[in-house]
Amino acid sequence: MDKAAELRQPSDNDGVNIRTSDHLVRGDLYTRKDLRERFQVNDATLNTGVFRPKGHDSVWLFLTINKQADRTQYEDSLDGDVLSWQGQSKGGTDRLIIEHVENGLELVLFFRVSKTQHPGAGFSYEGTFEYERHAAGGPPTNFTLVRAQRTVKAPARVVEQKPTTASGQGWMQDPEKRKLVEDAAQARLMRHYEVLGWIVEDTRVGNQFDAIASRDGETLYLEAKGTVTVGNSVMVTRNEVAWASDHPGECVLGVLSDIKFDKAGVLDPSVGTFQIFKWEPEDAELNPIGFDWKPRPRKRIG
């Protein structure tokens, strides 16, 4: 088993994982000893630069800019919200970083300029980051990660309904804004797979899916959903459900939530939380909003 596959192994923490970011404060200092005790970590690989703690839907990145002479001299930098970071020398965890959104994992950054910057060789917790792109070549692979705009837990369900609260997708009355939201979600989903080396085709017209992604003989059907809410539920159609049900393991659904418009009605492309899910609808995840009724001639009264 390669290193990335090993790090993706699920925990046996009663089948429920936590997200590290829910238990830390951005800007606070943490030593590896602090983290070991706080999260009851017994794994020696905590001392490496990329660590997936058991029982967490999180990957911990430890970054020291000015490295000691006996360490690999990776070229890294943190400039505001942009992290330029070199992966491990053998590339063993590259896929873990590239596919973290698809696998439901957050990237948590612990940062310091030097080992002696903070007491106890501690790190400043910089929050969560998202994979943006990587350059060809390597290893080590040159990654660009960007700071996540906000932390929103993944929706627990995909629901076919018209929500009555702001947590669900809801229905936008303004058709122009609705189109902008849909286009933003579509563009983000297509770009995600294009960066991963897939050939992506927009298929929104006349199909029950929004795009097709192809790579090395494999095909994925992509469905995109955008919402100005936190996206605890999204609206799906009967035909979309039918297609996904008929193509198990071949469909994914991308949700771009917390989309914002400025006062002039312009969509802000820098804001929003993007997540990707296996699109395998189950009855327990669906809430019908209506029924098809076929009038019977024998019931006609006028």
Please supply descriptive tags for the structure shown above.
302 residues, alpha+beta, Trna Endonuclease, Chain: A, domain 1, eight-stranded mixed β-sheet, five-stranded mixed β-sheet, 13 strands
Layout of secondary structure:
Blueprint: H1 3-7, E1 29-30, H2 32-38, E2 50-51, E3 58-64, E4 77-79, E5 82-86, H3 94-98, E6 106-112, E7 123-134, E8 142-147, H4 175-195, E9 199-202, E10 211-215, E11 218-226, H5 238-246, E12 251-257, E13 273-278
Parallel strand pairs: 3-6, 11-12
Antiparallel strand pairs: 1-7, 2-3, 4-5, 5-8, 6-7, 7-8, 9-10, 10-11, 12-13
Residues in β-strands, percent? 15-25%
Order of helices and strands: HEHEEEEHEEEHEEEHEE
Per DSSP, the total helix count is: 5
Give the mean pLDDT.
80
| Secondary-structure-derived class | alpha+beta
Total number of strands: 13
Alpha carbon gap, first and last residue: 71 Å
Q: Any idea of the CATH class of the largest domain?
A: Mainly Beta
- So, CATH architecture of the largest domain? Roll
Report Rg: 22 Å
Low-confidence stretches: 1-14, 150-168
How many structurally independent domains? 2
Describe the main β-sheet briefly: 8 strands, mixed
How would you describe the shape?
elongated
Give a short summary of the structure.
The protein is of the alpha+beta class and 302 residues long. The protein contains five helices and 13 strands. The strands form two sheets. Strands 1, 2, 3, 4, 5, 6, 7 and 8 form an eight-stranded mixed β-sheet that branches. A five-stranded mixed β-sheet has the order 9-10-11-12-13, covered by helices on one side.
